[in-house]
Structure prediction request, 683 residues.
Amino acid sequence: MSSVSFKDFRTSAARAIADVRLQSAIDGATLTFRTGRVKALADLPDVDGLRDQLKAIRSATLARLADHLEMFEQQARAAGSHVYWARDAAEANRFVLDIAQQHGAKLAVKSKSMATEEIHLNAELQNAGITPVETDLGEWIIQLAGEPPSHIIGPALHKTREQVAELFSREVGRTLPPDDIPMLTAEARRLLREQFLAADIGISGANIGVAETGSVVLVTNEGNGRLVTSAPPVHIAIMGIEKIAPTWDDAAVWLALLARSSTGQPMSCYTTAITGPARDGDPDGPREVYIVLLDNGRADLVGSDYDEILQCIRCGACLNACPVYQEVGGHSYGVPYSGPVGAVLMPLLYGLAENEALPHASSLCGACLDVCPARIDLPRLLLKLRAEEVREHMLTPQERLLENAVAFVLRHPRLYRALTGLGRIFQRPLARGGLLRLPRRLNPAGERQLPALAKRSFRSMWNEIKDGQL
Amino acid sequence: MITARDDILKRSKQRARAAGDHPPAWRSRRQFDDLSRRFVDSLAAVHGEACVVPSLEAAFARLGDLLAEIGAGRVVVNDEPPFSGVDMAARWPDIEWHVAGRSAGDLRAFCAAADVGLSSADAALAETGTLVVTSGPGRSRLVTLLVSVHIALVPVSRLTADLFTWTAGRSTPPPAMITLISGPSKTADIEQVMAIGVHGPKRFIVILYGDED
Prediction:
């Protein structure tokens, strides 16, 4: 269970802001993703129409989610896949462990999956004596470091090449120089290749489940999604129940926008659709394919005020666009989802009271809505969560008192003028060059700047202009 | 006791919003004057390599040049047109050949140590320089995956504009595996620096050959 209180968020945000290397890593990565996205979308004819189409597909699909899920299940079974339904993390993990134990598995290779991060599958596998090996390079790096992902698409973007070289050196048992990234990649290829060929099971997530054919679609750049579903004799896919595209035509819309919105590629290097185990005559491929449909709070969101968040295709564009994410980094949001989508999804999955800070991790500037391929109104969802906090009395008594006081002052203009007049006098010791130096407690990282109250208010100037005195 | 399945289905249904009509399928907005030109350019832009030759014979000649340039010693080939029925070992006797699903020995071990894997493709998407490869009799997944270099010989008649024209012309039901390949395996997971050849092939070469008069 992930939880982020105001205190947690402030502490981790302050740490991230003070970390110069982290700041430059996030700035660099998000800038690359942002510019790539703009360029890739510019090449597409009628991109606005296409985004409207994705929105329409996602919203219509969720309105009939149960029907589409039944169709998916029926088609997947017809193709020879086993389909399991998991209400929560515990049920999903139990299915995976049962399958693994049934096949006597000791080694599991995994392709990058946010759903398995969500249910903490790796820890469960380890406890059961099964070694999980992450094979996406970024996921492997953070697995070696024992850290959660800090970005949906670039899980290790917070790691420097020196840190990666150190982690890999420990694995190969000799010192690898940090200045040669292709060499570090080649070492990873060599080490992980052995794991792929030795693995008893392959575990993946699912980018899309195509209902009309019961296919699980995986999108990767490195080829690990292909290997996980080709080399081991058993493939288990864990898929959130909202990841359904009714038809291949719908999936095409999704795929046309996914890579362009996330990494700025026209297509990721590999898009793989798995429809059941290897058929008679196939020279290779898994003998068994299992699909675990994961609810974990999603079904209850359907039809709620927040169900728009289920339209998310996990491209990460909102993280790259978010000024708050760019400062505080992915780890400030808890595990596993970060950025604007995480700020909405985490409280919905793991409880609003437990994650009270996250709906406030936004300036409501709307950049996330601008870039979302499914046009999810993230600012609206964040505001709704904040309103719910107020309604549910989750504020501290001090905060309530303060907010009520501010509301009272704003309703009484004379009182407001009197108080700002006093503020002009009492701010003097804190004001420097038109800015207020906030006390340390309100400004833990020392970077926050507030404008001081102007010498004269706009209203008093306006009155003079009106009277012709200026 | 209610099963997890029924419980999930019930809860995803009970509050669902009124369903309007599902939107009609999106139709491709693309019209390329020269599909093969666009394919070659798009694939080059993502670090893949492609060329167009007039005939199958010219494609095999180009393949020979590439095998020599790579210095290929071990080559694995899918048992599918245009390779099936061709005696590769007779044409290139210095190379150790493995035909997927036909040769004796472990396909997987051969692929893992092979310099080159040869395949064809079901379709080629011009917009993104993407090949659509599938599994099936004689069509291995590992031949196009574990090898250092993947070379595909694809007739130009398999070219189509983009994802949307491909799904519109798709035949059901699908094979066990479909992979859309757009360039060599790559990553930018270490400091956003592009590195080619992580788990899949380091080079991805497509030879489009004329098969129409």
Chain B has a mean pLDDT of 95. The radius of gyration of chain B is 21 Å. Chain B touches chain A through 83 residues (CB under 8 Å).
